[in-house]
């Protein structure tokens, strides 16, 4: 039986564990969607550049290519940020527990 003084922490720990599992699932699905989106953007860019090789490039084509370039750039930045956050998270998990039982229970 859990004592009354420990009960609020037990509730929070349980909620955080459940939330952590849900966030992991969401992150996996989000990563798959981001990879699909990036592949579509790159394919669009290749198609646009391939079509422009055989004809003279006008201002509209140049603008469309520029917009695609910036979308790809933003997607790359998002991916870099996700990798950086994952690295930070792994680094924090590798730290030795300094006597914080609440923090170690989240792992």
Would you kindly provide a written description of the structure presented here, covering whatever features stand out?
This protein is mostly helical and 107 residues long. The protein has a domain of 54 residues. 82% of the residues lie in helices and 0% in strands. Helix 1 runs antiparallel to helix 2. The longest helix is centred in the first third of the chain and has 47 residues. The chain is rod-shaped and about 75 Å long. The two termini are 23 Å apart.
Mean of residue pLDDT? 83
Q: Pairing-aware structural class of the strands and helices?
A: mainly alpha
Gross morphology: rod-shaped
Give helix and strand order, one letter per element, not per position: HHH
Largest sheet: none
How many β-strand stretches? Answer: 0
Strand content: under 5%
Q: Percent range for helical residues?
A: over 70%
Please report the number of helical segments.
3
Radius of gyration: 23 Å
The first-to-last residue Cα distance is 23 Å
pLDDT < 50 stretches: none
């Amino acid at each position: 039986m859990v004592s009354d003084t420990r009960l609020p922490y037990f509730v929070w720990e349980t909620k955080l564990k459940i939330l952590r599992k849900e966030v992991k699932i969401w992150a996996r699905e989000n990563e798959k969607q981001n990879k699909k989106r990036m592949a579509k953007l790159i394919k669009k860019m290749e198609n646009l550049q391939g079509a422009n090789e055989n004809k003279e490039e006008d201002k509209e084509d140049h603008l469309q290519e520029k917009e695609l370039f910036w979308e790809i750039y933003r997607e790359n930045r998002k991916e870099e940020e996700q990798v950086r956050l994952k690295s930070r998270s792994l680094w924090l998990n590798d730290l030795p527990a300094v006597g914080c039982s609440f923090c170690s229970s989240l792992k």
